[in-house]
Each structure stands twice: as C-alpha cells, then as structure tokens.
Specification:
The structure is a single chain. With 121 residues, the protein is mainly alpha-helical. It has one domain. The termini are far apart.
Length: 121
C-alpha cells in the first residue's frame, strides 16, 4: 500500500519546497491533488470511510490531512472558488465527515456557492 502513495508524497513535497521558497504555484498544488484523487480511486477499500482511516492505513506517513487543509487554504486565498467548490465536493463524496471535523467542507462549499453567485450578479 505504501508504494502507491509515493507519487503523491513526491508531488506534495514539491509543493512544500516551493512554499519554503516563497512561491505557491497553483499548478503544483493541483497536480498533487490530482495524484491524490487518482491514487485514492485506485486504492478504494471497503472499510475506509474517513480521511483518518486513510491516515491510519498508511501509518500517518503521508500527511494527507495537512496537505488537503493547505491546498484548500491556498485555493481560498487565491479566490479560486470554482476549483475550491470542486475539491470540497469531491472530498465530501470520497469520505464520511462528521460535523466539526477540522475540514468543514460543507461550510467551505456553501461559502464558495455564495461567492460564485455574487460574482455572477
């Protein structure tokens, strides 16, 4: 299981290396998220229901939670509400979430819908 996540780990590491240099290239963050999605879909497990389950399965070696939080924050900072909406909707479908989880994706989703509606007016 661990080897399938190595590509994600490399992509996420590239994001943080650029961040340490004061850069936040959106294409790198988006690519790392795409690698996360493809790997997750290829590794579906019937017992995995939460992001924490995935972290447990990989012995917390890949920092998925931290990466996702940083990626969502980056999208919001850039005011890329369309992408942020898509990412939050994907994650809402991919995992079970409990109200009050550190990533309140439903709140993010609602905020994005509001921002996109406001931009249309």
């Amino acid at each position: 299981m661990a080897n399938v996540w190595d590509r994600f780990d490399q992509a996420a590491e590239a994001c943080y290396e650029k961040l340490a240099q004061g850069e936040r290239p959106p294409e790198l963050w988006g690519e790392a998220f795409e690698v996360f999605c493809r790997t997750l879909e290829g590794e579906k497990k019937s017992r995995r229901t939460t992001l924490e389950d995935l972290e447990d399965e990989t012995e917390w070696n890949y920092g998925f939670s931290g990466f996702l939080e940083d990626y969502l924050d980056d999208l919001e900072m850039r005011k890329d509400y369309r992408t942020l909406l898509g990412v939050s909707e994907y994650l809402l479908k991919a995992f079970s979430w409990i109200h009050g989880d550190f990533l309140d994706l439903e709140e993010i989703r609602i905020r994005c819908l509001g921002q996109l509606k406001e931009a249309e007016e």
